[in-house]
Protein: Response regulator transcription factor
Organism: Pseudonocardia nematodicida
Amino acid sequence: MHDDGTDPLGRGIVVAGPTPQPDGLRVVARLPATPADAVASTVARLRPSLVLVDATGPRDVALAVIAALTSRTPDTPALVVAAPGADHRLVLDAVRAGATGVATTTDLAEVARLARSAASGRPAFSPGLAAVVLESVAAPAQPVPDLSPRESEVLLLVVEGLTARQIAARLVLSPRTVENHVQRLLRKFGVPGRGALVRLAIEYGLA
């Protein structure tokens, strides 16, 4: 639950691929992972709280789904579900593609916990994976971007997990203006989606 008592998964989840339904979560659509554009179109229409992306099969399929979701529905977090012992390259590739988190477990209760964390706007990783992600950016290849005061405000609210509409209401802006700010932030940080943006903001000490 959010601090205000609302369920972060109140709009249900979409499952892309053969991942089993996690405990206690309402699935509003179960889709094949291909074609990726079809998954993104359905998610854009249904506007779920979260998308679970199965990565127990070919990694390119899962990464294509995440990239399509990042492009079409950047406000909808994606949690990748991979097999236990999945290699670290998959984890990093998934985060770079825009995933909010990665679960490497067959424990459906654990997947449900990580799903709620991801839907709340927080990075969500199985034990040990967060360190892998942080280590990958421990020595940034580029300096911290120069942000305007408004971009800094928007970034903080993105890290808090607010949607563009919620940020717009908080800052008394139009949702389109907020989306423009978010897109500029993504370009400045050189990342494809909100999950990676949140990760870098925390790593750089900006949030």
Observations:
- The CA atoms of residues 51 and 168 lie 23 Å apart.
